[in-house]
Fold:
Amino acid sequence: MDGLEVLANEGANAAMLAAVQYIRQNSLKYDADALVACLRSHCKASLPAALHDFRDAADCHMDQIAISTFRATMAFAGIEAAKEAGSTI
Structure:
């Protein structure tokens, strides 16, 4: 796997895990197709900012901060997707 593929996997995993945790903690009902569509939309919208922050930290040789910041931004995208796709029971 190259670096970009690893970064893509990290971002997708962070978003999906955050969405699932948010849904569970808030007892939300959701349609799987709607959640996937929301995840795709929010991740796509958040990706430029996440990559910008990643590059800024990586350029300063702060590799752990770079990946942590990237994961946090993508996790927030997952939470926003869960909020949009979910409804309370």
About this structure: The longest strand covers residues 28-29. The beta strands are 28-29, 87-88.
